[in-house]
Each structure stands twice: as structure tokens, then as C-alpha cells.
Specification:
Strand order of the largest sheet: 1-2
Low-confidence stretches: none
Mean pLDDT: 83
Strand content: under 5%
Number of strands: 2
Helix content: 40-55%
Distance between the termini: 26 Å
Radius of gyration: 19 Å
Amino acid sequence: FWDPLGLSASGSNFDYKRRREVELKHGRVCMFATIGYIVPEYTRLPGALSPSYGVQFADVPNGLSALSKVPALGWCQIVAFAGLIELNVYNEQINGEPGNYGAGFL
């Protein structure tokens, strides 16, 4: 395989498979992020994003400016959910195949 930076110079098969799996996982996260960036240009969910703070989905702008509009507790919930999924759902390979978690097309 082609490795111009020598990242797999150790020759460890485990490291190679782990890096390959992580690359697939990061690629999937990037694809979901791209969809999350495009979809709000065309449609918005109805209702309240945070009823206690009075934030509606329609009030949240597109792109990076949304970071300042979502309450901090909302970001904590997103990070906690992502961590829960990472640790409990997508942590075991099926048939030793990198990136195959038995979740269909995901």
C-alpha cells in the first residue's frame, strides 16, 4: 500500500486496521455534517428547539453562526449522545471488516 508519510512504518497490522477503521468513521461523520449543512437551506423543523430559552428552530441560522444560538446545555446533550453511540453501538466490527458495524448502509 502507498504510505508517503510513513504513518504505518511500525508495521503493526493492528495499527493499520485501526487507522483504516477510524478513517471510514470520520468520513461518515463528514458526510452527515455535509447533509446537516445543506438541508437547513431548504427546510426547517417546526416547533421549539429549546422551549425553556424560547429558541425556535426557525431562529437558528445556517452554518457556523448556529453555534452561538444553540444553548450550551443543548451542545452538552449532542456530545453526550454522540459519545453514547460511539461507546455502545459502533464499537464492534462484524466479520473483522473495518467499518462494518452491522448497521446496514451506515
